[in-house]
Design goal:
The complex is a heterodimer of chains A (493) and B (102). With 493 residues, chain A is of the alpha/beta class. Chain A folds into 3 domains: 106 residues, no CATH class; 193 residues, no CATH class; 176 residues, Rossmann fold. Chain A contains 18 helices and 8 strands. Chain A has a 6-stranded parallel sheet. In chain A, strand 4, helix 15 and strand 5 form a beta-alpha-beta unit. The N terminus of chain A is likely disordered. Helices cover 73% and strands 0% of the residues of chain B. Chain B has 4 helices and no strands. Classes of the chains: A alpha/beta (493), B mainly alpha (102). Chains A and B meet through helix 1, helix 2, helix 3, helix 4 and helix 5 of A and helix 1, helix 2, helix 3 and helix 4 of B.
């Protein structure tokens, strides 16, 4: 265990500064006004980390190193830079930069959850590759003597490659589900809990065995099993639980970076890994709390496909009122305050821009318009906020659940677009409901509820009927969200 | 650095992360994920070390190529992550500023 990597103290200091920049980057996100400065701190930190590494690890020429390896005095080799390798590294960075920047510019805001999942998978894969590289050439990382990798480094490396591989394959599945290449419905393998636990135990067992035997098969089996468990873990999780999954994978990508930071004794990687790891964990916790579900039950999976499952067929034949765009326009133009509750349906219909137009028209008529966002609305944390920001909705008109919920009782119109379970009073009243205990908007307390829905068939992902549909003061607006709002805008004149 | 010092940094950083992330406004949770994504690509440090190392024999050369591939992947993430975060953050505007027509 007594091994130290010869490090340049200036380099260590630079990595520490990079780590502090990353802390400031996250700190900046405490308010939209300071957020852009925060992002710049992130870029500065990354630049410091990359430049420090390049300066301290300038590729040198093979011949001289080779000669000196015999005596084990690499540091005394004459300094002949290896320009080919330097060029290769710069090309690699440029290729990545080009792909990254083009993707970031072109991506539609509604596709943000997929993009984030795809990015997570890249971090995971990069961690796997770095761990693989460290395993194949441990001397270069200073974690081996005479071909024997230090036992402690083997554990760190084994955990790093495992977490990285799980992040990769899990994120690929999350991406496919979010991108619609794969159905949102949970895929349930028989005996999956047993299989998963067995694979996990196998991975941990092999990591332990790896300290005794550094044969390649051990390392690559850990990697292979971890890829497998990533797939197996995410496949049974339904589309609507994706906010938790995306946050969880975010967390994993952090832990993977931290594990590699332990291997390389790199402060910047350890600080970043810890930050990202706790960030993702906190987001997962917030998402679970907002659904009143335990993290374990989400991970166990099987809840919530896209279409609402079998219970949808049991939609009751209770009477409900249908309204037209003109009715909705009239009701809202007469209102003092309208609260808009957007959900995933708004994202699917891409209705955010026309929704803001509608709000503008209403404001011209002297109506106060507010937006109410549930923490799990959409497919990732903050999804609705980004879409509304894209449509130029000022962020001070957008409110969180606990800040606005008491206002529904004094509100004339609650306008629900693409949301369902987050406004279902059964979460408060019906103990047998699968969403019981989930904090919901009290839209039923508003004077009038306008509910945009494609049809009366589907009843949300939880497959629960919603009493709000059948209230006397509810008017159902059955149409595609975007079309309906466009018609309302027309009717408002 | 010995293991305990590294572990200390790690544990402290987890606590810092805990408090910093709770102070992030929920409206910015999506940019938070994008930026954490970008910074977790600091793993590029390991990729650069692997790419810059002298490859001796077959495994050494493989190690170098794995490193270069990791540099590409991490760079996609770094540039893409920061760029998309900047793009999102630029959209968050206050009420008093005139809304830009698109």
């Amino acid at each position: 265990m007594e091994h130290t990597i010869a490090v340049n103290p200036w380099a260590s200091l630079a990595y520490l500064v990079a780590g502090v920049c990353f802390i400031l980057a996250l700190r900046g996100l405490s308010s939209p006004t300071s957020s852009q400065r925060g992002n710049r701190f992130g870029m500065i930190g990354m630049t410091i980390a990359v430049v420090t590494t390049l300066v301290t690890h300038v590729p040198r020429h093979l011949v001289y190193i080779h000669a000196n390896l015999m005596t084990g005095t690499i540091g005394d080799a004459p300094f002949i830079p290896d320009y080919t390798t330097i060029a290769e590294i710069l090309v690699a960075i440029s290729i990545g930069a080009a792909i990254g920047i083009v993707t970031a510019r072109r991506i539609a805001m509604t596709a943000m959850p997929q993009l984030v999942a795809a990015f997570h998978s890249l971090v995971g894969m990069a961690a796997v590759l770095v761990a693989g590289a460290a395993f194949l050439n441990p001397e270069a990382f200073g974690i081996a003597a005479a071909g024997q990798i230090f036992a402690q480094s083997r554990i760190e490396m084994g955990l790093g490659v495992a977490i990285g591989a799980i992040t990769f394959s899990g994120s690929v599945i999350a991406f496919l589900k979010l991108n619609g290449n794969m159905g949102g419905k949970p895929i349930m393998l028989p005996g999956r809990h047993v299989i998963n636990l067995a694979v996990l135990a196998g991975i941990l067992g092999l990591v332990a065995y790896f300290t005794q035997d550094q044969s390649p098969w051990v390392f690559w089996t850990i990697t292979g099993l971890s890829f497998a468990i990533g797939f197996l873990l995410i496949i049974p999780i339904g589309g609507a639980d994706m906010p938790v999954v995306v946050s969880m994978l975010n967390s994993y990508s952090g832990w993977a970076a931290a594990a590699m930071g332990f291997t390389l004794h790199n402060t910047a990687m350890i600080i970043t890994g810890a930050l990202v790891g706790s960030s993702g964990a906190i987001l997962s916790y917030i998402m679970c709390r907002a659904m009143n579900r335990s993290f374990i039950s989400v991970i166990a999976g099987g809840f919530g496909g896209d279409s609402g499952g079998g219970a949808a067929a049991a939609a009751s034949d209770r009477p409900w009122k249908r309204g037209s765009a003109e009715d909705a326009a009239f009701l809202m133009s007469q209102a003092e305050q309208v609260i808009i509750v957007p959900g995933y349906g708004m994202a699917v219909a891409q209705a955010q821009h026309v929704l803001r137009e509608m709000a503008d028209k209403l404001k011209e008529e002297g109506v106060r318009v507010k937006y109410a966002i549930h923490p799990v609305a959409g497919r990732m944390p903050g999804h609705m906020n980004v879409l509304l920001a894209e449509a130029n909705v000022p962020y001070d008109e957008v409110f969180e659940l606990e800040d606005i919920n008491s206002e529904f009782a004094q509100t004339d119109v609650a306008f629900i677009i693409g949301a369902n379970d987050v406004v279902n009073p059964a979460a408060k009243t019906d103990k047998s409901s699968p969403i019981y205990g989930m904090p919901v908007f009290d839209v039923n307390k508003a004077k009038t509820v306008l509910f945009i829905k494609r049809s009366m068939g589907g009843v949300g992902y939880a497959g629960v009927d919603n009493d709000v549909f059948y209230q006397d003061n509810t008017m159902m607006l059955l149409a595609d969200a975007k079309k309906m709002v466009e018609e309302i805008v027309k009717a408002l004149g | 650095m010995d293991f305990i010092s590294i572990l200390s940094i790690f544990v402290m950083a987890v606590f810092v992360g805990y408090y910093v992330v709770w102070s992030v406004t929920p409206a910015l949770h999506t940019p938070l994920m994008a930026v954490t994504n970008a910074i977790s690509s600091v793993i590029i440090v390991g990729a650069l070390i692997a790419s810059a190392a002298v490859g001796i024999g077959g495994t050494g050369a493989t190690s170098k190529w794995l490193g270069l591939l990791a540099v590409v992947l991490a760079s996609v993430n770094i540039f893409g992550g920061f760029a998309v975060t900047a793009r999102m953050l630029a959209m968050y505007k206050k009420k008093d500023r005139p809304a830009a027509k698109h």
